[in-house]
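so the lab meeting is tmrw and i was supposed to have these ready like two days ago... anyway. pasting both below. for each one the top line is the aa sequence and the line under it is the structure tokens. i havent really looked at them closely yet so no promises
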Amino acid sequence: MKRCIVGVLAATVMAVGLLTAAPQAAAGCLYGGPTLGRCDGPVQPDGTWERCLVVAQWVPRGASSYLAPVKHCQPMSLGRPPADPNFAEPPVHIDG
């Protein structure tokens, strides 16, 4: 039981650490919905930016299974839809 509690606590601390890490200047984040969070990096001179999603992934460890945050990033731009539809909302840069 202690290992399960420690595992859940560790996963929670990791998720909070990923979500509260300071994004670069001119970046914005949205929290909640189907993801733990989605953050956009600054817009580059060519009009592109990087969007990162943090999702919970189940890690099976017998009786001590837990959810761990996993970060996925993909380049974005206004005229080009992302390859993964999970990155599409919102279709514009998230300003912070």
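ok protien two:
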Amino acid sequence: MSLPNQKQSIWQVIFASSAGTLIEWYDFYIFGSLSLILSEKFFPDTNPTLSYVATLATFAVGFIVRPFGAIVFGRLGDMVGRKYTFLLTLLIMGGSTFAIGLIPGYATIGILAPILVLILRLAQGLALGGEYGGAATYVAEHSPAGRRGYYTSFIQTTATLGLFVSLGVILATRTTMSAESFNEWGWRIPFWLSILLVLMSYYIRIKLHESPQFVQLKAEGKTSKNPIKESFGNKENLKLVLLALFGAAMGQGVVWYTGQFYALSFLQNTMHVEFVQSNIIIAVALFFATPFFIYFGHLSDKIGRKKVMMTGMLIAALSYYPIYKAMDNTTDLSKKEEVSSAYRVESSLTPQEGGKFSERSARIHVYTDSTVVKEITTTSAAGKVDVKKEVTVSKSNQAWLILLIFIQVIFVTMVYGPIAAFLVELFPTRIRYTSMSLPYHIGNGVFGGLLPAISTLLVTKYNNHLAGLIYPIGIALICLVIGLIFIKEKKTADGFAEVADV
């Protein structure tokens, strides 16, 4: 095969794999992006804080079960093939996401609502547990050894792009209707749209051929008969799995979720930044930072995966506290001067069923730096009172927040850009899907996925906006020490490769 055809084949593989993986991440993340609204729809409204934490816990469940999906679908991928396994995970993910958009709220079906959401989140988590390992392995097995960091980095962009697309769809939906309509039913639209995206991706992926390395193994009769036993029952391979988890994936997971999901949660729930503005801040930061996944993946081909990933963890751990302190200061009203003459109260009535009305009043405070704070009180037709605080920051502060989150996403690109190539190269082809998927999804699904819930609980417990950073900083530093000690770099004719010293 000539070089041009080989490149064309690789780019076709990357496009098809990335399109499907992006859509699966989109499906997974719209739940997190809409967590505040979902907490109101699917959980009792007697304790809003507890309902929000319960929603984050339900979100985290999808991450926690990802390792089980990695085992189930990893085994299937190592025995049957990479292509058909990630076709199956795509359909499960898409169907579950669409179904979440159909579930009636707690007010309609009671406790059945959160139970159904939990079941569908479990299905999403299982599917995503099988998706990433398949896509990363599939691309890596089509890539030249010395260019794996570069080519697999395109797969690495899909998680962030999936979040970016989810935010874009949510913003587009929200800005085309009133806030009341969006909160009432419009939030379901992003869930419904996923089915169209999944069908498009399935059509693209079904035309792919199986991985050449897997085809060769199968032709030679060397595929694994029991990938789980070979991956975790073999002492030497188990050491590699544990090193991949505690020396790389664990730290990468918390850095990933801190820089994107916790940043969004911090903006909306700690700083109370207005919904549309907070999503725009995250989306713009993601847009400008995403190309760095490819840069750091390519750099890892030149200088080694370890140097890039460990540097990212170190800088992240040292920088989180000053970054989040600077973010928090932008909405610290004790440091701002109010323009008393601009204070006003706005009220409105919204018709409800039975000829009744809900009342909404907002006390609006304006500050000299153009910060606007709304204290919103909503009284339902049944007499239920809901109080919210909503902060719209000035243009200069908005740009400042974009920069602070952009810096955090750069840390994400450093640890996440090279990790697919690192994991693929660590394990043999016959058990690669199973072996790499489990540590990746424990690191991301458990250590990373629990981050929003744990950090929110820490903030609530200690009544300190920055207390939630204890968890990601601690995990990143532990992983950094283990990785520095036990991961060794070996230069080969094709570039750098990481090996275990265990």
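from a quick look at the 2nd one: The CA atoms of residues 375 and 389 lie 5 Å apart. Residues 1-8 have pLDDT under 50 and may be disordered. will dig more after coffe
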